[in-house]
């Protein structure tokens, strides 16, 4: 058996831990060959590969990023893309394909399995934690840790200068990073895509704090939030209107827009910090290293058991196999009860 591995979408702490685990188990325990496909689905389209073995992956557990490289390539963007994928699989003699990625990458894996009978297995990777069917995705814990540390550091500056600090974190359609880091960091307001909150209400909370003598505030906002006004006006902020191959425009900058509004409506000096790619870079936390390793071991086991069209998932304390369809069928959003708990500490 020749097992192909690819990493697609944004890079994420823990990717190398998965690659390491799959390679060590597939080669060392099952006697399989492992082929690394470079730069996501592009590596399969272009047959850009390298051979992986336990020696090559022995020292990558704690490394951020991915030794295989990644991209947002979508083989279904070109009508001949699937044919090229099939041709590459035949030419490379791949008996199984393990795709490590988020909903876009795993959506491709699901289609290749259903429509073309390719032996695919998915591993859930996204710092946004928005994949259905799994309690957590690896990379999320690291992103929350980084965001929480930033909020902690901004507290002292905000209080020293009597400022409002807006912290923009990642989260296109789900506000998991904002909610978790906001709770952990003691944010005074948290704004997420799932639950609209008017800018006037945000400013009222900040002014109420100031009236009580708390002349500083920390506001955490997800990049995918639509700014809303009581008048009914809404605005989504894009850093670029160009879209990637999956149709996503580049988000970023909502924090700057919100900061200007807060300063105008409250009269409080406001500063903005956009964490951006800092959240997905660098070494993974111990939690993500362990979770990613467990995912990799399970993925190798699923290859051995021919569990095609399935994805590794965390259910409670157990690692299980679920269908790729279930994982990509809908976005896992922040539950209302969790956000309502966070709201208890607003102001």
The rounded distance between the terminal residues' Cα atoms is 58 Å
Largest sheet: 7 strands, mixed
Mean pLDDT: 95
Number of strands: 15
Estimate what percentage of residues fall within beta strands: 15-25%
CATH domain fold name of the largest domain: Rossmann fold
Are there runs of 5+ residues with pLDDT below 50, and where? none
CATH class of the largest domain: Alpha Beta
- Per CATH, the architecture of the largest domain is 3-Layer(aba) Sandwich
Oligomerization: single chain
SSE order in H/E notation? EHEHEHEHEHEHEHEEEEEHEHEEHH
Shape: elongated
Q: What is the radius of gyration computed over CA atoms, rounded to a whole number of angstroms?
A: 22 Å
Question: What structural class results from the helix and strand content?
Answer: alpha/beta
Total domains: 2
Fraction in helix: 25-40%
The side-by-side strand order for the widest beta sheet comes to 3-2-1-4-5-14-15
* Number of helices, counting only DSSP H or I runs of 4 residues or more: 11
């Amino acid at each position: 058996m020749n097992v192909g591995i690819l990493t697609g979408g944004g890079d994420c702490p823990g990717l190398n831990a998965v690659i390491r685990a799959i390679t060590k188990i597939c080669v060392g325990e099952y006697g399989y060959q492992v082929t690394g496909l470079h730069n996501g689905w592009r590596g399969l389209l272009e047959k850009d590969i390298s051979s992986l073995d336990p020696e090559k992956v022995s020292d990558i557990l704690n490394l951020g990023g991915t030794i295989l490289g990644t991209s947002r390539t979508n083989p279904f963007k070109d009508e001949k893309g699937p044919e090229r994928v099939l041709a590459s699989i035949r030419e490379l003699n791949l008996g199984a394909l393990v795709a490590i990625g988020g909903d876009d990458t795993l959506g491709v894996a699901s289609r290749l399995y259903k429509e073309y009978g390719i032996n695919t297995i998915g591993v859930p990777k996204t710092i946004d934690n928005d994949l259905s069917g799994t309690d957590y995705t690896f990379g999320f814990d690291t992103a929350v840790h980084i965001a929480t540390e930033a909020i902690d550091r901004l507290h002292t500056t905000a209080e020293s200068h009597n400022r409002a600090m807006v912290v923009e974190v990642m989260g296109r359609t789900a506000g998991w990073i904002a909610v978790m880091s906001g709770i952990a960091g003691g944010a005074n307001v948290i704004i997420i895509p799932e639950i609209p909150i008017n800018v006037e209400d945000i400013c009222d909370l900040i002014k109420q704090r100031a009236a009580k003598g708390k002349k500083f505030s920390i506001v955490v906002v997800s990049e995918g939030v639509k700014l809303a006004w009581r008048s009914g006006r809404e605005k989504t902020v894009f850093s670029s209107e160009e879209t990637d191959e999956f149709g996503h425009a580049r988000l970023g900058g909502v924090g700057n827009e919100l900061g200007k509004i807060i300063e105008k409506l409250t009269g409080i000096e406001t500063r903005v910090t956009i964490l951006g790619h800092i959240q997905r870079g660098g070494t993974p936390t111990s939690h993500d290293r362990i979770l990613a390793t467990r995912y990799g071991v399970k993925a190798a086991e699923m290859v051995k058991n021919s569990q095609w069209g399935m994805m590794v998932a965390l259910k409670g304390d157990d690692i299980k196999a679920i269908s790729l369809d279930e994982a990509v069928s809908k976005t896992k959003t922040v539950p209302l009860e969790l956000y309502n708990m966070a709201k208890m500490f607003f102001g």
